[in-house]
Amino acid sequence: MNYANSISIYGMLPKAATLIGPLTYYKDKAHTKIVTFDPSFKDNNAEVSYMYMDSPGPTKSSSEIEVTQGPFDKEFFKLKGSKYKHLRNIRNKYSKIFVERGLRDCSGKDEAQLENLMNVWWDRIGDKNYGWNVHLGYDKRYFKESMSRLKGQTINLFFYLGDVLVGYAVFDCGRFDESGMLTYTYMLGKYDPRFKNISRYLDYLSYRYLYNLNKRPFVVNLGTASRGLLKYKLQTFPTYATTKRYFYKIKPHEEA
Predict the structure, then answer these.
(1) H-type helices in 125-197, by residue range?
(2) Whole-prediction pTM value?
(3) Is the pLDDT of residue 186 over 90?
């Protein structure tokens, strides 16, 4: 199941973007550049970037691996066996200092803490790994505009150590793939990198929360990644599926 859908697109909207369809948006204010996740979309008057395509395009294409983790079921959360030793140690460490209210499905009203967490993540992780500010722009736009618009259609989780926000995760509400597997899309997530391995623990908490919603096995589509991030996605939790996705651009009046 493709990562891109009419809900997950709200986790990929830059600050200047304007939606023009469920899977398509203008990237710039001048409306000369378009991003689409719809392979059937055409526009001969703008530069169109095709994202998360199932096959290469007619112009030069790049590719990345889309990762789906899982399945996560009751047995998984016991973390038995040597393959989960590292994750089990992380869980045991942080479960001693996280309190019950450490996991909140709330409205994100603590705006100052949210802003501070994003800035800490950017200073320690984002600038080094990404080199541009677009990733924070996605998050800021979502919390400022999209979260209230999507009320009831996304799951917004906020993690606290005491009263300090140390992470958040945003998912869609799940869909069933062609085999009947419940599939969630991981739209956004950040963590405080000053706490060692906390990203793994927050993912574990998120998945446990999702399991408790329905008490049935599910998988999580994380989107695409490359290099170190891909390694992290493949090694931390069980892998359900990997799929190559393609990215390409078609300039105005080029043959689509």
Answers:
(1) 127-129, 134-141, 147-149
(2) 0.90
(3) yes
Are the beta carbons of 182 and 218 closer than 8 angstroms? yes
Structure tokens at 34: 């378009």
Among 159, 157, 160, residue whose Cα is nearest residue 213: 157
Percent share of the chain, pLDDT over 90: 64
From the list 192, 20, 212, 90, the residue with the least C-alpha distance to 33 is: 20
The three-point CA angle 194-199-205 to 5° equals 130
Rounded Cα gap, residues 104 and 159, in angstroms: 6
Helix (H, G, I), strand (E, B) or coil at 54: coil
What angle in degrees, to the nearest 10, is found between the helix axes of 134-141 and 111-121?
Answer: 160
Give me the residues paired with residue 170 across strands.
156, 188
| Residue 66 pLDDT > 60 | yes
Residue 192 near residue 230 (C-beta atoms within 8 A): no
- The H or E element spanning position 148 is helix 147-149
Structure tokens at 17: 């973007």
